[in-house]
Protein backbone atom coordinates (compact mmCIF):
# COMPACT_ATOMS: atom_id res chain seq x y z
CA UNK A 1 0.00 0.00 0.00
CA UNK A 2 1.23 3.52 -0.84
CA UNK A 3 2.20 5.46 2.26
CA UNK A 4 -0.02 8.49 1.83
CA UNK A 5 -0.50 11.71 3.77
CA UNK A 6 -2.48 11.89 7.01
CA UNK A 7 -5.08 14.58 7.58
CA UNK A 8 -5.13 16.99 10.52
CA UNK A 9 -6.77 14.32 12.70
CA UNK A 10 -4.25 11.63 11.74
CA UNK A 11 -6.60 9.86 9.32
CA UNK A 12 -5.18 8.23 6.15
CA UNK A 13 -6.93 8.35 2.77
CA UNK A 14 -8.43 4.92 2.03
CA UNK A 15 -11.57 5.22 -0.08
CA UNK A 16 -12.34 7.38 -3.09
CA UNK A 17 -16.07 7.80 -3.74
CA UNK A 18 -16.41 9.04 -7.29
CA UNK A 19 -19.76 10.22 -8.57
CA UNK A 20 -20.29 9.67 -12.30
CA UNK A 21 -23.45 11.73 -12.69
CA UNK A 22 -25.72 13.85 -10.50
CA UNK A 23 -28.76 12.65 -12.46
CA UNK A 24 -31.03 9.84 -11.41
CA UNK A 25 -33.91 7.80 -12.79
CA UNK A 26 -35.60 7.92 -9.34
CA UNK A 27 -36.43 10.91 -7.17
CA UNK A 28 -36.08 9.71 -3.57
CA UNK A 29 -37.36 12.61 -1.42
CA UNK A 30 -34.57 12.12 1.16
CA UNK A 31 -31.97 12.61 -1.60
CA UNK A 32 -33.48 14.99 -4.18
CA UNK A 33 -31.33 14.29 -7.28
CA UNK A 34 -30.57 16.80 -10.01
CA UNK A 35 -32.49 16.85 -13.29
CA UNK A 36 -29.35 17.69 -15.25
CA UNK A 37 -25.63 17.21 -14.88
CA UNK A 38 -23.28 20.07 -14.08
CA UNK A 39 -21.82 21.58 -17.28
CA UNK A 40 -18.25 20.31 -17.10
CA UNK A 41 -18.20 16.59 -16.42
CA UNK A 42 -14.82 14.92 -16.12
CA UNK A 43 -13.71 12.96 -19.14
CA UNK A 44 -12.90 9.26 -18.92
CA UNK A 45 -9.18 10.02 -19.08
CA UNK A 46 -9.49 12.55 -16.26
CA UNK A 47 -11.33 10.03 -14.09
CA UNK A 48 -8.57 7.48 -14.62
CA UNK A 49 -5.93 10.11 -13.80
CA UNK A 50 -7.83 11.08 -10.66
CA UNK A 51 -8.16 7.49 -9.44
CA UNK A 52 -4.50 6.81 -10.16
CA UNK A 53 -3.50 9.87 -8.14
CA UNK A 54 -5.79 8.96 -5.22
CA UNK A 55 -4.24 5.47 -5.24
CA UNK A 56 -0.76 7.01 -5.12
CA UNK A 57 -1.91 8.89 -1.99
CA UNK A 58 -3.11 5.73 -0.26
CA UNK A 59 -6.61 5.02 -1.57
CA UNK A 60 -7.15 1.26 -1.88
CA UNK A 61 -10.88 1.23 -2.66
CA UNK A 62 -12.92 3.03 -5.29
CA UNK A 63 -16.69 3.32 -4.94
CA UNK A 64 -18.50 4.45 -8.08
CA UNK A 65 -21.73 6.21 -7.35
CA UNK A 66 -24.03 9.05 -8.41
CA UNK A 67 -26.92 10.07 -8.93
CA UNK A 68 -27.47 6.77 -10.62
CA UNK A 69 -24.16 5.44 -11.96
CA UNK A 70 -25.85 2.97 -14.34
CA UNK A 71 -27.04 6.02 -16.32
CA UNK A 72 -23.40 6.62 -17.22
CA UNK A 73 -22.68 4.85 -20.52
CA UNK A 74 -18.93 4.70 -19.90
CA UNK A 75 -19.19 2.83 -16.58
CA UNK A 76 -17.88 -0.54 -17.79
CA UNK A 77 -15.15 1.11 -19.88
CA UNK A 78 -13.98 3.08 -16.84
CA UNK A 79 -13.80 -0.05 -14.67
CA UNK A 80 -11.86 -1.84 -17.41
CA UNK A 81 -9.46 1.11 -17.79
CA UNK A 82 -8.68 0.98 -14.06
CA UNK A 83 -7.64 -2.68 -14.05
CA UNK A 84 -3.90 -1.96 -14.45
CA UNK A 85 -4.03 -0.19 -11.06
CA UNK A 86 -5.34 -3.41 -9.56
CA UNK A 87 -2.66 -5.56 -11.11
CA UNK A 88 0.24 -3.74 -9.51
CA UNK A 89 2.28 -5.76 -7.05
CA UNK A 90 1.56 -5.41 -3.33
CA UNK A 91 4.07 -2.89 -2.03
CA UNK A 92 4.39 -1.06 -5.37
CA UNK A 93 5.38 2.46 -4.35
CA UNK A 94 2.72 3.89 -6.70
CA UNK A 95 0.07 2.11 -4.59
CA UNK A 96 -2.40 -0.56 -5.60
CA UNK A 97 -6.16 -0.38 -6.07
CA UNK A 98 -7.61 -3.37 -4.24
CA UNK A 99 -11.34 -3.02 -4.77
CA UNK A 100 -13.85 -1.38 -7.08
CA UNK A 101 -17.41 -1.17 -5.77
CA UNK A 102 -20.64 0.27 -7.14
CA UNK A 103 -23.73 1.72 -5.40
CA UNK A 104 -26.85 1.66 -7.57
CA UNK A 105 -30.62 1.69 -7.29
CA UNK A 106 -30.57 -1.38 -9.55
CA UNK A 107 -33.40 -0.32 -11.84
CA UNK A 108 -31.15 -0.52 -14.92
CA UNK A 109 -29.20 -3.61 -13.85
CA UNK A 110 -30.12 -6.12 -16.54
CA UNK A 111 -28.56 -9.59 -16.68
CA UNK A 112 -26.37 -8.40 -19.54
CA UNK A 113 -25.20 -5.27 -17.69
CA UNK A 114 -24.42 -7.30 -14.55
CA UNK A 115 -22.27 -9.69 -16.63
CA UNK A 116 -20.56 -6.76 -18.38
CA UNK A 117 -19.71 -5.13 -15.04
CA UNK A 118 -18.28 -8.39 -13.73
CA UNK A 119 -16.27 -8.91 -16.92
CA UNK A 120 -14.93 -5.34 -16.70
CA UNK A 121 -13.56 -6.09 -13.22
CA UNK A 122 -16.13 -4.75 -10.73
CA UNK A 123 -15.78 -6.47 -7.33
CA UNK A 124 -18.84 -5.47 -5.35
CA UNK A 125 -22.35 -4.07 -5.85
CA UNK A 126 -24.59 -2.47 -3.22
CA UNK A 127 -28.17 -2.06 -4.37
CA UNK A 128 -30.58 0.34 -2.69
CA UNK A 129 -34.17 -0.56 -1.89
CA UNK A 130 -36.38 1.17 0.70
CA UNK A 131 -39.57 -0.87 0.61
CA UNK A 132 -40.96 -4.36 0.16
CA UNK A 133 -44.22 -3.41 -1.55
CA UNK A 134 -45.30 -1.12 -4.37
CA UNK A 135 -46.73 1.59 -2.14
CA UNK A 136 -43.66 2.05 0.05
CA UNK A 137 -41.24 1.85 -2.89
CA UNK A 138 -43.27 4.50 -4.73
CA UNK A 139 -43.25 6.77 -1.69
CA UNK A 140 -39.53 6.42 -0.97
CA UNK A 141 -38.45 6.61 -4.63
CA UNK A 142 -40.58 9.70 -5.26
CA UNK A 143 -42.58 8.02 -8.05
CA UNK A 144 -45.60 9.81 -9.42
CA UNK A 145 -47.36 6.67 -10.65
CA UNK A 146 -48.35 5.41 -7.19
CA UNK A 147 -48.42 1.76 -6.08
CA UNK A 148 -48.35 0.35 -9.62
CA UNK A 149 -45.19 2.32 -10.48
CA UNK A 150 -43.62 1.25 -7.17
CA UNK A 151 -44.40 -2.39 -7.94
CA UNK A 152 -42.60 -2.10 -11.29
CA UNK A 153 -39.49 -0.63 -9.63
CA UNK A 154 -39.58 -3.27 -6.88
CA UNK A 155 -39.77 -6.04 -9.47
CA UNK A 156 -36.78 -4.57 -11.34
CA UNK A 157 -34.67 -4.31 -8.19
CA UNK A 158 -35.53 -7.86 -7.11
CA UNK A 159 -34.58 -9.03 -10.61
CA UNK A 160 -31.36 -6.97 -10.40
CA UNK A 161 -30.39 -8.82 -7.21
CA UNK A 162 -30.68 -12.12 -9.06
CA UNK A 163 -28.88 -10.80 -12.15
CA UNK A 164 -25.99 -9.64 -9.97
CA UNK A 165 -25.86 -12.96 -8.13
CA UNK A 166 -25.95 -14.91 -11.42
CA UNK A 167 -23.11 -12.76 -12.79
CA UNK A 168 -20.92 -13.83 -9.86
CA UNK A 169 -21.46 -11.10 -7.23
CA UNK A 170 -21.78 -13.47 -4.29
CA UNK A 171 -23.54 -12.13 -1.18
CA UNK A 172 -21.75 -14.74 0.93
CA UNK A 173 -18.43 -12.98 0.27
CA UNK A 174 -19.90 -9.48 0.71
CA UNK A 175 -19.92 -8.81 -3.05
CA UNK A 176 -23.65 -8.08 -3.07
CA UNK A 177 -25.47 -6.10 -0.37
CA UNK A 178 -28.63 -4.13 0.07
CA UNK A 179 -28.90 -0.53 1.36
CA UNK A 180 -32.08 0.94 2.84
CA UNK A 181 -32.71 4.39 4.27
CA UNK A 182 -35.35 4.16 6.98
CA UNK A 183 -37.22 7.27 8.08
CA UNK A 184 -39.71 7.62 10.87
CA UNK A 185 -43.05 8.30 9.26
CA UNK A 186 -41.75 7.49 5.76
CA UNK A 187 -40.98 3.78 5.70
CA UNK A 188 -40.33 2.85 9.34
CA UNK A 189 -42.94 0.11 8.90
CA UNK A 190 -40.67 -1.52 6.29
CA UNK A 191 -37.94 -2.48 8.74
CA UNK A 192 -39.04 -6.07 9.36
CA UNK A 193 -40.34 -6.72 5.81
CA UNK A 194 -37.05 -5.47 4.30
CA UNK A 195 -35.04 -7.54 6.77
CA UNK A 196 -37.13 -10.57 5.84
CA UNK A 197 -36.62 -9.90 2.12
CA UNK A 198 -32.84 -9.66 2.62
CA UNK A 199 -32.68 -12.73 4.86
CA UNK A 200 -34.56 -14.84 2.30
CA UNK A 201 -32.02 -13.83 -0.32
CA UNK A 202 -28.94 -14.27 1.87
CA UNK A 203 -28.09 -10.55 1.59
CA UNK A 204 -26.59 -8.28 4.20
CA UNK A 205 -29.03 -5.41 4.71
CA UNK A 206 -27.43 -2.08 5.63
CA UNK A 207 -29.93 0.17 7.39
CA UNK A 208 -28.94 3.82 6.99
CA UNK A 209 -30.10 6.60 9.28
CA UNK A 210 -31.70 9.51 7.41
CA UNK A 211 -28.93 12.11 7.10
CA UNK A 212 -29.04 15.91 6.89
CA UNK A 213 -27.06 16.07 3.66
CA UNK A 214 -27.77 19.14 1.50
CA UNK A 215 -30.71 21.47 2.04
CA UNK A 216 -33.49 20.12 -0.12
CA UNK A 217 -34.62 16.99 1.72
CA UNK A 218 -36.46 18.68 4.60
CA UNK A 219 -34.43 16.80 7.19
CA UNK A 220 -35.38 17.12 10.83
CA UNK A 221 -34.11 15.12 13.77
CA UNK A 222 -37.57 13.73 14.56
CA UNK A 223 -37.64 11.89 11.19
CA UNK A 224 -34.51 9.91 12.03
CA UNK A 225 -35.12 6.32 12.97
CA UNK A 226 -32.06 5.63 15.08
CA UNK A 227 -29.80 2.66 14.56
CA UNK A 228 -30.35 1.62 18.20
CA UNK A 229 -34.12 1.53 17.68
CA UNK A 230 -33.78 -0.41 14.43
CA UNK A 231 -31.49 -2.97 16.07
CA UNK A 232 -33.83 -3.30 19.06
CA UNK A 233 -36.87 -3.88 16.86
CA UNK A 234 -35.03 -6.39 14.67
CA UNK A 235 -33.62 -8.17 17.71
CA UNK A 236 -37.10 -8.72 19.15
CA UNK A 237 -38.05 -10.61 15.99
CA UNK A 238 -34.72 -12.32 15.25
CA UNK A 239 -32.15 -12.37 18.10
CA UNK A 240 -28.88 -10.67 17.12
CA UNK A 241 -25.24 -10.83 18.16
CA UNK A 242 -22.97 -7.80 17.65
CA UNK A 243 -19.97 -8.11 15.33
CA UNK A 244 -18.92 -4.45 15.51
CA UNK A 245 -17.67 -1.84 13.08
CA UNK A 246 -14.45 -2.51 11.21
CA UNK A 247 -11.71 0.14 11.24
CA UNK A 248 -12.65 2.99 8.85
CA UNK A 249 -16.01 1.34 8.12
CA UNK A 250 -19.39 3.04 8.14
CA UNK A 251 -21.54 0.11 9.27
CA UNK A 252 -21.89 -1.63 12.62
CA UNK A 253 -22.67 -5.24 11.82
CA UNK A 254 -24.80 -7.83 13.55
CA UNK A 255 -25.21 -11.57 13.05
CA UNK A 256 -28.63 -13.20 13.21
CA UNK A 257 -28.36 -15.90 15.85
CA UNK A 258 -30.23 -18.32 13.58
CA UNK A 259 -27.39 -18.02 11.05
CA UNK A 260 -29.44 -16.33 8.30
CA UNK A 261 -27.06 -13.65 6.92
CA UNK A 262 -26.08 -10.40 8.62
CA UNK A 263 -27.57 -7.00 9.15
CA UNK A 264 -25.79 -3.68 9.59
CA UNK A 265 -26.64 -0.15 10.66
CA UNK A 266 -25.05 3.09 9.50
CA UNK A 267 -25.52 5.42 12.47
CA UNK A 268 -23.99 8.61 11.17
CA UNK A 269 -26.54 10.72 13.08
CA UNK A 270 -26.84 8.90 16.41
CA UNK A 271 -23.32 7.41 16.70
CA UNK A 272 -20.95 9.28 14.36
CA UNK A 273 -17.79 7.60 13.12
CA UNK A 274 -15.79 10.64 11.98
CA UNK A 275 -12.82 9.61 14.11
CA UNK A 276 -11.43 7.18 11.54
CA UNK A 277 -13.20 8.39 8.38
CA UNK A 278 -10.92 7.72 5.39
CA UNK A 279 -13.27 8.76 2.55
CA UNK A 280 -12.66 11.39 -0.11
CA UNK A 281 -15.59 12.33 -2.32
CA UNK A 282 -15.27 13.68 -5.84
CA UNK A 283 -18.30 14.84 -7.82
CA UNK A 284 -18.95 14.13 -11.49
CA UNK A 285 -17.52 17.55 -12.36
CA UNK A 286 -14.34 17.03 -10.37
CA UNK A 287 -15.06 18.88 -7.11
CA UNK A 288 -13.40 17.19 -4.12
CA UNK A 289 -15.10 17.10 -0.71
CA UNK A 290 -13.58 15.76 2.50
CA UNK A 291 -16.99 15.09 4.06
CA UNK A 292 -20.63 14.50 3.07
CA UNK A 293 -21.52 17.57 5.10
CA UNK A 294 -18.66 19.83 3.98
CA UNK A 295 -19.63 23.42 3.25
CA UNK A 296 -17.19 23.78 0.37
CA UNK A 297 -15.34 21.68 -2.17
CA UNK A 298 -12.16 22.12 -4.20
CA UNK A 299 -12.24 22.08 -7.99
CA UNK A 300 -9.64 19.58 -9.22
CA UNK A 301 -10.21 20.34 -12.91
CA UNK A 302 -7.40 22.88 -13.23
CA UNK A 303 -5.01 20.13 -12.15
CA UNK A 304 -6.59 17.49 -14.37
CA UNK A 305 -6.92 19.48 -17.58
CA UNK A 306 -3.72 21.00 -18.87
CA UNK A 307 -0.70 18.78 -18.53
CA UNK A 308 1.14 21.79 -17.08
CA UNK A 309 2.90 19.80 -14.46
CA UNK A 310 2.36 16.06 -14.04
CA UNK A 311 2.74 16.20 -10.27
CA UNK A 312 0.31 19.13 -9.75
CA UNK A 313 -2.72 16.94 -9.12
CA UNK A 314 -0.92 14.73 -6.59
CA UNK A 315 0.50 17.78 -4.82
CA UNK A 316 -2.86 19.51 -4.61
CA UNK A 317 -4.93 16.47 -3.71
CA UNK A 318 -2.32 15.49 -1.11
CA UNK A 319 -2.35 19.03 0.29
CA UNK A 320 -6.12 18.99 0.42
CA UNK A 321 -6.08 15.75 2.37
CA UNK A 322 -3.37 17.00 4.73
CA UNK A 323 -5.46 20.09 5.51
CA UNK A 324 -8.65 18.07 6.15
CA UNK A 325 -10.29 18.66 9.53
CA UNK A 326 -13.88 17.53 8.79
CA UNK A 327 -15.80 15.85 11.61
CA UNK A 328 -19.24 17.31 11.01
CA UNK A 329 -21.34 14.46 12.42
CA UNK A 330 -19.45 14.51 15.70
CA UNK A 331 -19.73 18.32 15.83
CA UNK A 332 -23.45 18.12 15.12
CA UNK A 333 -23.85 15.79 18.04
CA UNK A 334 -21.76 17.98 20.36
CA UNK A 335 -23.65 21.12 19.32
CA UNK A 336 -27.06 19.51 19.65
CA UNK A 337 -26.29 18.85 23.28
CA UNK A 338 -26.15 22.60 23.85
CA UNK A 339 -28.22 24.18 21.06
CA UNK A 340 -29.23 23.66 17.45
CA UNK A 341 -26.38 23.26 15.00
CA UNK A 342 -25.13 26.61 13.62
CA UNK A 343 -23.58 24.79 10.64
CA UNK A 344 -26.94 23.49 9.52
CA UNK A 345 -27.64 26.74 7.65
CA UNK A 346 -24.27 26.92 5.87
CA UNK A 347 -24.38 26.01 2.15
CA UNK A 348 -23.78 22.32 1.53
CA UNK A 349 -23.86 20.12 -1.55
CA UNK A 350 -26.76 17.75 -2.19
CA UNK A 351 -26.49 13.98 -1.76
CA UNK A 352 -27.00 13.00 -5.41
CA UNK A 353 -24.23 15.43 -6.41
CA UNK A 354 -21.86 14.07 -3.76
CA UNK A 355 -22.72 10.43 -4.30
CA UNK A 356 -23.38 9.20 -0.75
N1 LIG B 1 -28.46 6.02 -6.93
C1 LIG B 1 -27.64 5.11 -6.21
C2 LIG B 1 -28.38 4.47 -5.07
O1 LIG B 1 -29.44 4.97 -4.69
O2 LIG B 1 -27.88 3.48 -4.56
C3 LIG B 1 -26.32 5.69 -5.74
C4 LIG B 1 -26.32 7.09 -5.17
S1 LIG B 1 -27.19 7.30 -3.63
C5 LIG B 1 -26.87 8.98 -3.29
C6 LIG B 1 -26.12 6.40 -2.50
C7 LIG B 1 -26.78 5.98 -1.21
O3 LIG B 1 -27.07 7.13 -0.44
C8 LIG B 1 -28.10 5.22 -1.38
O4 LIG B 1 -28.04 3.99 -0.70
C9 LIG B 1 -29.11 6.13 -0.76
O5 LIG B 1 -30.16 5.42 -0.16
C10 LIG B 1 -28.29 6.90 0.25
N2 LIG B 1 -28.87 8.20 0.62
C11 LIG B 1 -29.28 9.18 -0.20
N3 LIG B 1 -29.72 10.25 0.50
C12 LIG B 1 -29.59 9.93 1.82
C13 LIG B 1 -29.88 10.61 3.04
N4 LIG B 1 -30.38 11.84 3.07
N5 LIG B 1 -29.59 9.97 4.20
C14 LIG B 1 -29.07 8.72 4.19
N6 LIG B 1 -28.76 8.04 3.07
C15 LIG B 1 -29.04 8.62 1.90
FE1 LIG C 1 -31.45 8.39 -7.05
FE2 LIG C 1 -29.96 7.05 -5.34
FE3 LIG C 1 -30.74 9.56 -4.79
FE4 LIG C 1 -32.57 7.64 -4.80
S1 LIG C 1 -30.80 7.79 -3.41
S2 LIG C 1 -32.76 9.62 -5.81
S3 LIG C 1 -31.81 6.29 -6.35
S4 LIG C 1 -29.37 8.95 -6.37
Would you write up a description of this structure?
With 356 residues, this protein is α/β, with parallel strands linked by helices. It folds into 2 domains: 1-104 and 278-356, Aldolase class I (TIM Barrel), CATH 3.20.20.70; 126-209 and 227-266, Aldolase class I (TIM Barrel, Alpha-Beta Barrel), CATH 3.20.20.70. The chain is built from 12 helices and 12 strands. The chain has helices at 44-56, 75-81, 83-86, 111-120, 134-141, 146-166, 191-200, 227-237, 301-304, 312-322, 328-338, 351-354; strands at 15-19, 61-65, 99-104, 124-128, 176-182, 204-209, 240-245, 252-256, 262-266, 279-282, 287-289, 298-299. It has a 12-stranded mixed β-sheet. A hairpin with a 6-residue loop joins β7 and β8 (252-256). α1 packs across α10 (312-322), α2 packs parallel to α4 (111-120) and α4 (111-120) packs across α6 (146-166). The longest helix is centred in the middle third of the chain and has 21 residues, at 146-166. It is globular, with a radius of gyration of 20 Å. 47% of the residues are buried. The model is unreliable at 339-343 (pLDDT under 50). The structure holds S-adenosylmethionine and iron/sulfur cluster. Residues 24, 26-28, 31, 33, 66-68, 105, 128, 352 line the site of iron/sulfur cluster.
Amino acid sequence: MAQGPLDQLGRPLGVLRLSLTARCNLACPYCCPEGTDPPELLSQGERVQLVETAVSLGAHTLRLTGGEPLLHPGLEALIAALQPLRQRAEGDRRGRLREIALTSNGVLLSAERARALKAAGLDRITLSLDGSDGASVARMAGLTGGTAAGAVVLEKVLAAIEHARAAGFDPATGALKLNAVLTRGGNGDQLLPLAQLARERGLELRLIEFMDVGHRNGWSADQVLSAAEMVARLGERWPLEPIGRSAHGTASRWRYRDGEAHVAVVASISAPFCGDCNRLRVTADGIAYGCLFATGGTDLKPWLRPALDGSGLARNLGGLWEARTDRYSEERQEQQRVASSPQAAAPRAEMAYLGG
